[in-house]
Design a protein that fits this description.
The chain is built from 12 helices and 9 strands. Bound molecules: nicotinamide-adenine-dinucleotide (NAD).
Length: about 290
């Protein structure tokens, strides 16, 4: 079992660290927010007074932070305190450029590094069923895999530095676009007098099928577990979808890729957030396509 330093114990990091404790690892944690650190302590994480204290003598360090700037600041601190050969893993969803810079910093410090963003949300983090999309060397991935397995059920090595972040934002760009398409179709069906169930029964078994309709249907009824049945409580908050769509657009701009529908989806989610919906599930965007919105 390993000694693990865990930085960022929020909605995702907290339950992920708790699963590492359950798997028998010694986890030293740090978060800037005192109540978050206290909650982690209750799940068996040993609280540290500073990031450097949490990572000193750790064989593995994991960060789970909001954005690229937080990761780069934290890694600058961390890499001053870790021994050469330490494996540093970033599980946050951040821009590809910052992720690649973090890998370079780790290389300069003589550490192994992996970007390993997740999908599965807070439910997956608590249940230990996250999917990890990893970028980095074969050696870093091989060392990280058994650690990540304590927090997830699917671990995919996507390629070299930054490839995990690239896979994450491409996947979520598909999701944002497909959800908008499914919502538009249900709004049109309502105008045409077609029932939700009828559209679901046809589209979920025909060429329109996709995760946004089959698993996460944006209207109440056809899929009883979807957030539409629970007043659009997230789930996956619209603000997080907007964050990921913006990351995809930054990456498209930087790489010269053409993503017109991704750009449109980002604009629609920006408007939806501006209307006060950032904390609601991202499937609630269907309301924007109805007359009352
Ligand atoms: P969160 O805001 O709940 O947690 C982030 C934590 O980082 C906070 O507790 C904050 O105090 C702490 N923090 C910030 N800077 C720090 C620093 N320098 N040192 C120590 N602690 C610091 O966010 P979250 O929902 O846990 O998300 C974390 C990451 O996971 C984000 O990149 C997000 O996009 C990604 N993600 C979230 C979900 C989700 O459903 N919440 C799903 C997939 C991916």
């Amino acid at each position: 079992m390993a000694r693990i330093g865990f930085i960022g114990l929020g909605n995702m990091g907290g339950p992920m660290a708790a699963n590492l404790v359950k798997a028998g690892h010694e986890v030293l944690g740090f978060d800037l927010a005192a109540p978050v650190l206290k909650a982690a302590e209750e799940s068996g994480v040993k609280p540290a007074s500073h990031a450097s204290q949490a990572v000193k003598e750790a064989a593995v360090v994991i960060t789970m932070l909001p954005q690229g700037k937080h990761v780069l600041t934290a890694w600058t601190d961390i890499l001053q305190s870790t021994a050469q050969g330490t494996l540093v893993i970033d599980c946050s969803t951040i821009d590809v450029e910052s992720s690649r810079r973090a890998h370079e910093m780790a290389k300069t410090a003589g550490c192994l590094s992996l970007d390993a963003p997740v999908s599965g949300g807070t439910g997956g983090a608590s249940a230990g069923t996250l999917t990890f999309m990893a970028g980095g060397s074969e050696e870093a991935f091989a060392q990280a895999k058994p650690i990540l397995e304590a927090m997830g059920k699917k671990i995919v090595h996507c390629g070299e530095a930054g490839a995990g972040q690239a896979a994450k934002i491409c996947n979520n760009m598909i999701l944002g676009i497909s959800m908008v398409g499914v919502c538009e179709a249900f709004a049109l069906a309502e105008k045409l007098g077609l029932s939700h169930q009828a559209l679901f029964d046809v589209a979920s078994t025909s060429s329109g099928q996709c995760w946004s309709i089959n698993t996460y249907c944006p209207v109440p009824g056809p899929v009883p577990t979807s957030p539409a049945n629970n007043d659009y409580k997230p789930g996956f908050a619209a603000a997080l979808m907007l964050k990921d769509l913006r990351l995809s657009q930054e990456a498209a701009l930087a790489s010269g890729a053409s993503t017109p529908l991704g750009a449109q989806a980002a604009q629609l989610y920006a408007l939806f957030e501006k209307l006060g919906n950032g904390g609601r599930d991202f499937s609630a965007i269907i309301e924007m396509f109805r007359e009352k919105a």
